[in-house]
Amino acid sequence: MPAAVDGPPGAGGSAAAGGGGGDRGAEPVRRAVEAVWRIESARIVSTLARYTGDFALAEDVAQEAIAEALASWPRAGIPASPAGWLLTAARRRAVDSFRRRSALDERYALLAGPLVEGEAISGAPAPRNRPEDDLPWDPDRVDDDVLALMFMACHQVLAPEARVALTLRAVGGLSSEEIARAFLVPVPTVQARITRAKKTIAAAKVPFELPPAEERRTRLGGVLSVLYVIFTEGSTATSGDSLLRPDLAHEAIRLARMLAALLPDEPEVHGLLALCELTAARFPARTGPDGEAVLLADQDRRRWDRSAIRRGLAALGRATAAGRGLGPYGLQAAIAGCHSTAPSTAETDWERIVLLYEALGRVAPSPVVELNRAVAVAMANGPQAALAIVDELVATDRLAGSHLLPSVRGELLARLGRTEQARAELELAARQCRNLRERAVLLRKAAALPPA
């Protein structure tokens, strides 16, 4: 008896390369620039941050290089090495900035040294052996600069919402408009968060470097938390008229894969990746033809993404193989794994899920985990035992204002035949729910209850 809609077990709701001259048109170039930026932005920004020692400057000159590419590539064609072109253009912008700061001659010399004297970024097709043809990274290896960028974007000096915005911008390569659309906030709000985050990093003198090994595991929790928040919002949108925001969820998965490549010996990184893959595997079945929410029990499991399930179970296996015991993300992934391998809701191993939620509650206690444990208890042992857990949450007022608590309580009361109370709880949940698709599910349940 899943509570409302399907989602992460512990969640609370929520191109082209190759030269050639001529005018290629603005739209194909825009798509090419977006593709290159999405793939290479983290390495471009992190490389610039290492060269300049100034994260805010690195991000600014990278954005200026993007604008320059959009202006020049339609006239002269897409260069043979688009990422190299962007990096070279951005480095020149950084050189110009240091030139304007005449006291920084030594740093200017360091930056300007690898560049060809007098070379102009004209947008002409890049000939062979130009500096931008030789990337300062191995394209088959994600280096430590990207990891340093992730730790900086998720630094604890930043407010949680600023960490999310900066991670999506600097590491994920999303524009302010894309971030605003994903979280349903105004573009100026996102821009202000990013600007404030960069200023905070500068004021706090956060170095662009990997934290020492002894600090890395502690700081890693903050990085994982940011990726989890991003994925959760994509998996079940907090508000709006869409249940899912797949682009946001898949961006979190991409970043989690990147982190797993950077830190292959950290089990919780693999645990988070497994959780995201296994949850996203159900996306194709979670909405109907008109975008309406489909509950877990009603989903056509033939539509689940079996490739994502295999990837998720493999990642969970890597987390388990570390031999340190599963952490919060690994435990949630194990719960998602139980669902992904069950032929139906009735044939799900609910007893094991109850045990996993009990373990999760000890490792990372929260009222949402306790509420989800109640759902599993209801499936394993009946609604009366689950109602006692839910009523304890009501008594302690630990989920005040959340639609999740009355949603679960309403379903439990309905199963116990207490129809009027169930209807009242489901209608309360609908009033508190900000996502229109979830609200519609709750109202349908209330309306389907028989008269008292």
TrEMBL record:
Biased composition (Gly residues): 9-23
Family statement: Belongs to the sigma-70 factor family. ECF subfamily.
Source organism, top-level taxon: Bacteria
Keywords linked to the UniProt accession: Coiled coil, Sigma factor, Transcription, Transcription regulation
Gene Ontology MF terms: DNA binding; sigma factor activity
Xref: SUPFAM superfamilies: Sigma2 domain of RNA polymerase sigma factors, Sigma3 and sigma4 domains of RNA polymerase sigma factors
GO BP, one annotated term: DNA-templated transcription initiation
Start and end residues of each DUF6596 domain: 219-319
Descriptive protein name: RNA polymerase subunit sigma-24
Signal peptide: none
Matches recorded under PANTHER family: BLL6612 PROTEIN (PTHR47756:SF2), BLL6612 PROTEIN-RELATED (PTHR47756)
